[in-house]
Amino acid sequence: MKIGKREKRRKQHHLITEIFKIVLYLFLKLIKLLFSFPIYLLKAMRLLFSFSINLLKAMWRLFSLSMHLLKSLWLLFSFLIHLPHRLVKQFLKKPSKPVLPTLAEIDEMNGYKFEEFMKCVYEQLGYSVYHTPFSGDQGADLILTSKEKKRIAVQVKRYSGKVSNSAVQEVVAAKGFYKCTEGIVVTNSYFTDSARKLAEANLIDLVDRNELEKLINTILN
After folding, report:
1. Pairing of β 204-207 and β 128-131
2. In this predicted model, what pLDDT tens digit does every residue of 104-148 receive, in sequence order?
């Protein structure tokens, strides 16, 4: 009987021990879970925060892309709207007339400025113009080349008195030096009778004050 009671007590003690172990195990697991929960919660919050940031970045990029697309579409729309107007305006626009000095203003020029002015005049008339050096020009201030490749030597004289036949002699010499087929003497003044006779004999064109005014009016009109 005593052995049976001891065995019974031993089994009860063993059962209590096992229950205590299980309860202790569960208690420790609960403690561990309670301590781990904030960590997992923080990790979850961190993942949620990162996801939110990435979502906001994606939304901002999408918004920026949409704005750029709208801006491009608006520019394209504006271009297409204004294109016909610009084409019509450009088609109807009258070419602006060049501003040229008057004869009185030409009279105030020095020799080099008058040469530059005549270079501009002949370019407006459709010639390709070479301005020779200011010194050592061999009798020609300008060399004109027409669209037909015809070369013309030009002597430019800004005078207050009449131009003598020496200017004609200079351009005659320049024709041969620059391999030109024609020669012109231009002045803001007039020519002596001797210069006109020499020019006629050598087939040199003379452009006096009256002819110069006609050239200017041709460009302006």
Report:
1. unpaired
2. 888 899 988 999 999 999 999 999 999 998 776 688 999 999 999
Spatial contact of 167 and 195, defined as CB atoms under 8 Å apart: yes
Average pLDDT, integer, range 182-193: 95
What DSSP assignment string belongs to 3-25? HHHHHHHHHHHHHHHHHHHHHHH
DSSP symbols for 24-85: HHHHHHHHHHHHHHHHHHHHHHHHHHHHHHHHHHHHHHHHHHHHHHHHHHHHHHHHHHHHHH
Question: What is the rounded CA–CA span in Å between residue 87 and residue 122?
Answer: 31
Q: How far apart are CA 212 and CA 159, in angstroms?
A: 13
Q: What is the pLDDT of residues 21-51, one digit of tens each?
A: 888 788 787 787 777 777 777 887 888 888 8
**Residue-level length of the chain:** 221
CA 107 to chain centre: 40
Given a cut of 60, whether residue 65 has pLDDT beyond it is: yes
Count CB-CB contacts under 10 A for residue 219: 15
Only one residue has tokens 């391999």, namely 179
CA 221, CA 215: separation in Å to the nearest integer? Answer: 10
